[in-house]
Specification:
The complex is a heterodimer. Chain A is α+β, with helices and mostly antiparallel strands. In chain A, about 55% of the residues lie in helices and about 15% in strands. In chain A, the strands form two sheets. A six-stranded mixed barrel of chain A has the order 2-3-10-5-7-6, surrounded by four helices. A two-stranded antiparallel ribbon of chain A has the order 8-9. The radius of gyration of chain A is 32 Å and the shape is elongated. Chain A starts with a helix and ends with a helix. In chain B, the strands form two sheets. Chain B has a six-stranded mixed β-sheet, with helices on both faces. A four-stranded antiparallel β-sheet of chain B has the order 2-1-4-5, with helices on one face. Classes of the chains: A alpha+beta, B alpha/beta. At the A-B interface, helix 1, helix 11, helix 12 and helix 14 of A face helix 2 and helix 3 of B.
Chain lengths: ~425, ~240
């Protein structure tokens, strides 16, 4: 055992002496590994970044909220079946809430109607178009996890009275008021004056497509009065226990069928959407991207590994006589095998560490200059890439090292 | 005038032979060279005792190198018996042979075979690493071996900073460091000028006097005559085996 330790120490010493003596060659070989590790780890950070961004976006939808809508999330083939469905009207939320109240131990907490359309918000000379405008009740506050950076949501009295008050999304407030506080000011939503009573804190965008900060929230009655009374809505239903989504969903289907007066045997004329189902739909795509990405970047690492194998073969060939001498002096097969394996692993490790530092720098640069691109560096990435480097060294160094360990000392000593 | 490599025979001592170290009996070695089978050794028997100073001589193709590889446990016989201090070497596998070489045999090569990127001291330490000595003990023994060959002041020089004679001395120190049963030198003066060759042979004489067992393989009569006994090979057979005189 102690002998093995001494041999290992000697092998590391020899390996580093060898790398020092062949600097250029070692650097060029390590370059293959560096590129491979950078490619793989960058891919890793990108995959992680996408994952985190994705989960963050989904969290905005709320993991304890079910959406009652005409359309399912995701693509549909028979769209006419959906478009012929009767609209979901805001008053169905009241009926739903009454059923919820009457149901003992209901898994549903509250149903909130949300109508939406796109309008503009204007204050003085500043105008923002394409603002996602929603009309909802005071219960909306129970759905959302976001904080208010200023002010508050409208209360029940304001909501029921259809008072002209509004809550601005962070980006809208910033665009229209710049650095001033919008509280108490009057803005034009569409062409109607509303008094700002609150601003929602910054939330970010959903999958980079849709910004939750580009919105304005109005009392439902006001929304219906100024924009569209007949317009359909969606019902957002908060559930009491996020561990029992499936049960809550079943209960909700039954309740909504009652509200919409559906007969037994009739197919549901609505969809219950939830972030979990969304996730299930997108996960395979995400995994496909991750696999393809890792495979392509893995190829570059493979090329690096071939470089290591090649250089180890060269190293064995060059030092055949040295191998013979070592064997004559009592080196066992294991000793020789370890020596060349350690040399290959050392080059890979140097390449791996350099690659990791490069990736770290790139990630820092990207996250500062292009915050929209989700990249994330993690400690596990360090361990994984070190493990990958070592594995690369072992795999690519094994064949030449094995050959070296099997050399006949007589033949090796005679080699010139 | 180049100094003669021939020894001064008058007045030199011969130590009494000790216990049996090498016992080779009826050894043959065959090589396949393409279609042809070469009989490098055709039945060689030789006994070597501790405290002997033996030269193996023979022209090229005589089987001299094959016998040397056999004596050095680098190779095993095709047929015949080979016992090294009572252990049967003929049937040993690679790693067992490596251990025998490490503990029992000190090699001195014609081309020195020092590791170019290691210091003299590190070269001498190498067999001790394979023997499993701890670093501190390794260093002490290696320094002692270096002093024994008169290079106590060259410990941290690399081979390319040493003269040919010094390199061969380092190689001899490396051969001695693990206190082997025999020292096996293959044409030890072959790559040295005559003057340095004389010095190396003088060092061998000194090592012999100190109680080491030496086997020198050479094709030079002058070198062989430094030994106390000469084994001459021809065509894979022992032609003669007797004392120098």
């Amino acid at each position: 055992m102690t002998r093995l330790i001494y041999e290992l120490t000697e092998s590391f010493r020899i390996a580093f002496a060898q790398i020092r003596a062949n600097k250029l060659r070692s650097i060029l070989t390590a370059l293959g590994v560096i590129i491979g590790i950078v490619a793989v780890t960058l891919m890793g950070t990108a995959i992680r970044g996408i994952d985190t961004g994705f989960n963050k976006s989904l969290a905005m939808l709320g993991d304890d909220v079910l959406y009652v809508q005409k359309w399912p999330w995701g693509p549909v083939e028979d769209f006419w079946n959906y478009s012929n469905r009767p609209a979901i009207m805001p008053d169905q939320a009241d009926k739903l809430n009454r059923i919820i109240e009457q149901t003992p131990n209901s898994l549903l907490e509250v149903a909130v109607p949300v109508s939406s359309r796109s309008t503009s918000v204007k204050y003085g000379e500043n105008k923002v178009s394409g603002v996602f405008t929603i009309g909802t009740t005071a219960d909306y506050g129970r759905l959302i996890s976001a904080d208010f950076s200023e002010g508050r949501l409208f209360n029940e009295t304001e909501a029921n009275g259809g008072r002209p008050v509004c809550v601005l999304g962070f980006d809208v407030a910033e665009a229209v008021f710049q650095n001033r506080s919008p509280l108490g000011e009057t803005v034009l939503v569409g062409s109607h004056p509303f008094t700002v009573i609150g601003v929602v804190a910054k939330q970010g965008s959903f999958l980079g497509l849709f910004s939750f900060d580009n919105q304005v929230i109005l009392p439902l009655e006001a929304f219906r009065k100024y924009f569209s009374a007949r317009r359909g809505a969606e019902l957002r239903v908060k559930i009491t226990d996020k561990m029992r989504v499936a049960e809550a969903r079943e209960e909700l289907i039954g309740a909504v069928r009652r509200v919409r007066g559906q007969l037994p045997g009739e197919r549901d004329n609505f969809n219950i959407n939830e972030q979990g189902a969304f996730k299930a739909q997108l996960d395979p795509i995400k995994q496909g991207i991750a696999l393809a990405g890792l495979f392509i970047t893995g190829l570059s690492l493979f090329v690096g590994a071939i470089g290591i194998m090649n250089i180890t073969f060269v190293s064995v060939k060059e030092r055949t006589k040295e191998i013979g001498t070592r064997k004559a002096l009592g080196a066992r097969r294991r000793t020789i095998l370890l020596q060349f394996l350690i040399e290959a692993v050392s080059i890979c490790l140097i390449g791996g560490i350099a690659g990791l530092l490069l990736t770290y720098t790139l990630v820092q640069v990207v996250s500062v200059t292009l915050p929209a691109i989700p990249v994330e560096f993690s400690v596990s990435l360090v361990f994984i890439s070190m493990a990958v480097s070592i594995a690369t060294g072992i795999v690519s160094g094994f064949a030449p090292a094995w050959g070296a360990s099997r050399l006949d000392p007589v033949v090796a000593l005679r080699y010139e | 005038m180049t100094p003669s490599l021939a020894p001064e025979l008058a007045g030199r001592i011969t130590r009494p032979a000790g216990p049996l170290v090498i016992d080779i009996a009826g050894v043959t070695k065959l090589y396949q060279m393409g279609e042809e089978i070469i009989h490098a050794l055709r039945g060689v028997s030789v006994k070597i005792h501790r405290n002997e100073y033996l030269a193996v001589m023979g022209p090229s193709g005589s089987g001299k190198s094959t016998l040397m590889n056999m004596l050095g446990c680098l190779d095993t016989p095709s047929e015949g018996r080979y016992e090294f201090t009572g252990k049967n070497v003929a049937t040993m596998v690679d790693d067992e042979l490596a251990d025998i070489r490490n503990r029992e045999i000190g090699f001195v090569f014609q081309t020195f075979n020092l590791l170019p990127r290691s210091t003299a001291l590190a070269n001498v330490e190498l067999p001790l690493i394979y023997a499993g000595y701890a670093p501190a003990e390794r260093k002490t023994k290696a320094i002692q071996a270096m002093q024994n060959v008169g290079l106590g002041d060259r410990l941290h020089h690399r081979p390319n900073e040493l003269s040919g004679g010094q390199r061969q001395r380092v190689a001899i120190a490396r051969a001695l460091v693990n206190s082997p049963s025999i020292i096996l030198a293959d044409e030890p003066t072959g790559n040295l000028d005559s003057k340095t060759g004389v010095e190396i042979m003088a060092l061998f004489e000194q090592l012999y006097a100190q109680g080491n067992t030496l086997i020198v393989v050479t094709h030079e009569e002058d070198i062989a005559r430094h030994a106390r006994r000469i084994v001459r090979l021809r065509d894979g057979l022992i032609e003669s085996d007797g004392p120098v005189g």
